[in-house]
Structures are given as C-alpha cells and as structure tokens.
Amino acid sequence: MTKLIFMGTPDFSATVLQGLLDSQAYEILAVVTQPDRQVGRKKEMKQTPVKKLAQAYGLTCYQPEKLSGSQEMAELMALGADGIVTAAFGQFLPEKLLNAVDFSINVHASLLPKYRGGAPIHYALINGDKEVGVTIMEMVKQMDAGDMVAKASIPIQEEDNVGTLFDKLAVVGRDLLLHSLPAYIAGELQPIAQNEEEVTFAPNISPEEEVLDWHKTARELFNQVRGMYPWPVAHTFLAGNRFKIQQLVEVDSQGQPGQIIEKTKKRLVVATGHGAVSLLRVQPAGKPQMAIGDFLNGLGRDLQVGDYFGK
Hints:
Methionyl-tRNA Fmet Formyltransferase, Chain A, domain 2; seven-stranded mixed β-sheet; 15 strands; Formyl_transf_N_sf; transferase; single chain; Rossmann fold; alpha/beta; Formyl_transferase-like_C_sf; methionyl-tRNA formyltransferase activity; six-stranded antiparallel β-sheet
C-alpha cells in the first residue's frame, strides 16, 4: 500500500481526497490544509472542507500558516511517506519537503501549460475558452511548471460558471488521479515536459479585475460575470455605490454603454459597448443577493430608462 501525505483546502480538494480514501491502494498518513479562517460579517471561524473530511476519517491534520521551516514540516518529513499529492492547497511546497519523498504530484485545474496559477477556471471562463480540464503534474520549485503525467478535458457549457466547473473538474481530477497514479508509481507513465513557449498564467483575481467595464461587449461581460461567480463576484456602481452582479444574459439590443435601455417589473436591460445584457441576479450595497424582479419591486423602483450603471 502506497503511503501518502495529502495537501488541499477547498471542496475541489476534498473530492480528490475522498477518492484516495475510497481506494484500497493508498494509506493517508496525514492531511495538510490551510488554517481556519474568519469569514462573513460575523467573523465566524470556518474549517476548510479538507479538514472536515480528515476529521471524519480520524486523520492527522496539519494547518501551518507557512510550511517552510515549520515544526509541522519536520513532522511530515518524519512520517516516512512514499509520496505527496496536492490539489488546490494554496501554498508553495519547500524543495526540502519535495526531496524527502519518492514522488510529489499536483492535481491542477487547467490544461497545462495554459493557466499556471491560482485561478485557472476563472480565466478560462473570462477569456471565453471552449474547454477546461485537469492536469496531473510533478511538483517542482517553480509554480505549476512540473512535467505532466496525465490530462483530461471537458467542454464549457453556456450555463457554466466558476462554481459548476469547480464541481465538475473535481470529479475529473479525482478520476484522472486514480486512473494514472498506479501506472505513474510503477514507472509505466513517462511524464512530458511543458512547452515553455505556450505558458500562460492565471493569478488570483485582483479587486480591479472585478469591476465591469460597460464599454466591453455583451459577450465579454457575460463571461466576466460567470467567470467570477460565486467568488469573488463582479461588480459595477450605481449612484456611487457598489452593485454586485451574479448572473446576466446577452440580449439583442443597443444603446450607450452602461445605460438602462429597458425596465419592467421583472426585467432590467443595460447596454454595453456592443449589444446589451439583461440582469438576472444582483446584490445592492449592504443587501443580500436577490433576483432582479425582487430588486426592481423594492430598492430599484426609482430606476429609470436612461439611468446609468458604472457611475
């Protein structure tokens, strides 16, 4: 039985870990995840999905703020693991730790060498890609630059957003790992080097990138909104206040960018640089997320055709 240390944080990682736990081929010696964080307005302490799963199975769980030079890393190196598997862990692994095991591989949610970094699914949607995927790769000191062990892809559907694709790719990554890992360990899979000329990056979304530019096309704004839902959520401004938009659709209409060109009790259409969009789910400043009809029948009653977003 192959002895593993697993490192991961969100639901994506928990799905991969569950696959390893369900297999009879692996023993999970320890789990490493990010520290508990305060979330929401009430600042409630929240455990990561990986920690919750580890606790359910009685696994030893480490949560170092930083692995390098930590007591936790020393303890991990003393476990005698054969290998390390990571999936959306959120930290770089020190070279000393990588050298302490026979192998270390990462389940990365992109078709490498495209989209190295922490937000590959976001950028795939924002850029209007037709497909997304998972790459199993060897871990090296440089971010997401290791040789590729296996790949699998799925098409992006019109209704997809970051949340739906994370769920889908978690299953793809789990299955790809379970299929390829035995052959990799046995030396039957020869990893392939990434083509450095094809490398692109997907860094974490910055606050500036969350802001909608109404001069973009309707399609670009559609992709931006779904490429930031359910996190971090794209926003514009209305009467000087931040106004989040969780969902919209393209419509065949024209007007001045950012201008409201149609308003009914259940429909609000805003012009873009080319085409228009109909808002479906929104969140005014200081309020919960709501359907556009609820907004228009309440806080948005005074909006008029001719008013502008983005100001």
